[in-house]
Amino acid sequence: MQTVLVVVLALHVLSSVFWAGSSFTLARTGGRGAAALFRPQMGAATVAVLTGLYLWQAVHSGPAGTPERVLGVGIAAAIVAAGVQGWWVGRGLKAGLGADGAPDAGIARAYRIASVLLMLTVVCMAIARYV
């Protein structure tokens, strides 16, 4: 069980770092390069959420205390961020916006919103143990 937990935790952290880091970068660059990173980001978001659900079940399966409520806020923020990126960025890319690598204001706005939500998620994960 310990080995499985460590492997799942590593997958969770690595996919989350890629997802959040690339989102922060794309927010800063106005969405330039979104077409190339959209699918890997959505894959990383899926892995992050699924491994997070496993970790929740394995580590936080008892009654919800303050740490679980803080993590719940982070989980909600991450799911909303995935939705914003999946719907807004995906829709923009399907419409041909940013397809040539050029920045697009709508895609950039979606990445900025998602980045704020992912930043909240990271803060919640970091402080949950200490609240």
How do the helices and strands line up, and which of them pair or pack?
Elements: H1 2-28, H2 34-59, H3 66-94, H4 105-127
Helix pairs in contact: 1-2, 1-4, 2-3, 3-4
Task: Explain this structure.
- The chain has four helices and no strands.
- It is elongated and about 50 Å long.
- It is 80% helix and 0% strand.
- The mean pLDDT is 92.
- It has one domain.
- Helix 3 (66-94) packs antiparallel against helix 4.
- By secondary structure, the protein is mainly α.
Q: Biggest sheet, in brief?
A: none
Q: Tell me the Rg in angstroms.
A: 16 Å
Contiguous low-pLDDT stretches (5 residues minimum) are none
The count of DSSP E runs of length 2 or more, i.e. the number of strands, is 0
| Tally of DSSP helical segments | 4
Quick synopsis:
With 131 residues, this protein is mostly helical. It has helices spanning 2-28, 34-59, 66-94, 105-127. It has four helices and no strands.
Task: Give short descriptive properties of this protein.
mainly alpha, 4 helices, 131 residues
